[in-house]
Amino acid sequence: MILRIDHVGIACHDLEATIALYQKTFGLKVVHREVNEEQGVREAMLHVADGETGGSYIQLLEPLHPDTPVGKFLATRGEGVHHVAYGVSDVAGAMDEIAATGVRLIDKTPRHGSMNSSIAFLHPKDVGGVLTELVQAPPRDS
Ligand code: CMX
Ligand code: CO
C-alpha cells in the first residue's frame, strides 16, 4: 500500500529563514511554494530525491494564524517535525484499509495537498504520537 516517504513536514515560525537554513546546510532547493488556506499554512517543498514511485521532499510549514493546526503545534511544542507523509497510489483505498484496522481518520474524504496531490491525515493518538499523512500524487501529465 505504501510506496515511499513522500515528505516530512516541519513546523517553523519563519518560512523564509528556515528555507535559507535548509539551502545553506543541505543544499536543498525549493521546487514549490503554496498558501493553503484550508490547512492554514504557507509552505515550501524542498526536493530531496527521486525514486521509481515519485519524489521525496521536506515540507516547511509556517502557520497563517495562531488558531490553525500548525499554529497550535508551535505554541505547545515549538519548532520541529510536525508530520510524516507516505506516498500511496490510491489514497481513498489506503484510508479504507487503515480505518479498518481501527485507526481514526482526521479526514473522512481526501482533500487538496501540495502540488495538486490528494491527501488525508490519520490521528496522531492512534499512530504512536506521529501525525501521519497519506499522499496520492496527481497523474504525471497534469
Ligand atoms: N504530532 C503529534 N501529536 C500532535 C500533533 C502533531 N503534529 N498535533 C497535535 N498533536 C497532539 C497534541 O499534542 C495533543 O496531545 P495531548 O492530548 O496529549 O495534549 C492532541 O494531539 C490534541 O492536540 P490539540 O493541540 O488539542 O489539537 P487539535 O486536537 O485541535 O488538533 C490534530 C490535532 C492532529 C487533529 C490537528 O492538528 C489536525 O487536524 N492536523 C491535520 C492537518 C494539518 O496538520 N495540516 C497542516 C499540514 C498541511 C500539509 O501537510 O499540507
Ligand atoms: Co504534509
Automatic annotation (TrEMBL):
Keywords of the record: Metal-binding
Keyword Metal-binding among UniProt keywords: yes
Entry's Gene Ontology molecular function annotations: metal ion binding; methylmalonyl-CoA epimerase activity
GO process terms (BP): L-methylmalonyl-CoA metabolic process
SUPFAM superfamilies xrefs: Glyoxalase/Bleomycin resistance protein/Dihydroxybiphenyl dioxygenase
Coiled-coil blocks: none
Domain VOC intervals: 4-137
One Pfam entry name: Glyoxalase_4
Family designation: Belongs to the methylmalonyl-CoA epimerase family.
UniProt protein name: Methylmalonyl-CoA epimerase
Top-level taxonomy: Bacteria, Bacillati, Actinomycetota, Actinomycetes, Streptosporangiales
